[in-house]
Amino acid sequence: MTKLPAASRLQAIADMLRTGEGIGIAAMAERFSVTMETIRRDLVLLERDGLLTRVHGGAIPVSRAAPLPSRLASLSAEKAVIGKLAAQNATRDGWIFITHGSTALAVAKALNDGPAVSVMTNMPAIAEVLQSGLKHRVTLTGGEYDYANGALVGEQVLEAISECIFDTAIITAYGVDPVHGLVESSKYLQRFKRLLFERSRRRIFVADHSKFGASGAYVSVSLSDIGTIVTDEPPPAPFADGLKDAGVRVVYPQKDETNNMEEYTNGQ
Q1: Which of 53, 34, 149 is nearest to 100 (CA)?
Q2: Is-above-0.85 flag for pTM?
Q3: Which residues, at least 6 apart from 39, have a Cβ–Cβ distance to it below 8 Å?
Q4: 153-171 pLDDT tens trace
Q5: Are the C-beta atoms of 248 and 265 separated by less than 8 Å?
Q6: Could you tell me where the beta strands, DSSP code E, fall in the chain?
Q7: 15: number of CA atoms within 13 Å, CB side?
Q8: CA atoms within a 13 Å half-sphere pointing along the CA-CB vector of 188
Q9: Residue 24's CB: how many other CB atoms inside 10 A?
Q10: Nearest 5 degrees, angle CA 79-CA 103-CA 215?
């Protein structure tokens, strides 16, 4: 990309944040042909203007309430990688629950390329991606439709989950705290994910790098209970150490000698 003047670069970063998703320092430095230190200074300025919150390795918008179509365009390549790795780690011959979210949709797209699966979800778009009734079996929870998140919400969702035991649950994370674990933005999402945790035998949590350090008021899963988390790059040092000490298996991509992507874990 042609090197932009500082003011234009700041505006471009602000525009990207309006999609409702986070940005990474390294990716922005490469995109705008500047140093990572330049991007760090840009983020400080934008944070002073109230446009973002800085986190480890990047920044997130002050509000991540952008409609789902906008979020789908943000970090799409990274989410596709997460989706592929999560699908590889899922048990396909059991009953799977997939939560809503742009990263969850990427997991569904990856699952669609493999053998038939049986899925319950609160995200209608996942049923469409999995071609429900043609190749895969998909059950929707029911509930009130939330356009901003492309999700079914409410007590009906919780009731549907409480009536089942899932072999695998694929769960998105709003934020990852290095001390407390997975955090959420609302009491309802805390209840939703805690219940899903209780009603599943195995859980795979998915989170792109911008979620590490993202703040949330409600803890859904403690650090030691995470089990497996799939992300798109190695977590920052404070998170990597905490996750390893808590016995969490962290899965992320790593390029081999031929520049192809392969799965790497932290050895848990």
Answers
A1: 149
A2: no
A3: 13, 25, 28, 29, 32
A4: 999 999 999 999 999 999 9
A5: no
A6: 23-24, 52-55, 58-61, 95-98, 118-121, 137-140, 144-146, 151-153, 166-172, 175-177, 181-184, 200-206, 218-221, 228-230, 249-255, 261-265
A7: 6
A8: 7
A9: 22
A10: 100
Amino acid (1-letter code) at residue 43: L
The backbone torsions φ and ψ at residue 221, rounded to the nearest 5 degrees and listed phi first, read -140, 130
Residues with Cβ within 8 Å of 76's Cβ and at least 6 positions away in sequence, in order, are 106
Domains in the chain (CATH in brackets) are: 6-63 (1.10.10.10), 70-265 (3.40.50.1360)
Residues 6+ apart with CB under 8 A from 65: 20, 148
- Look at the block and give the residue holding tokens 């000490």: 245
Place of tokens 């009906």: 156
pLDDT of residue 26: 81
Q: pLDDT under 50 in the chain at which residues?
A: 257-259, 261
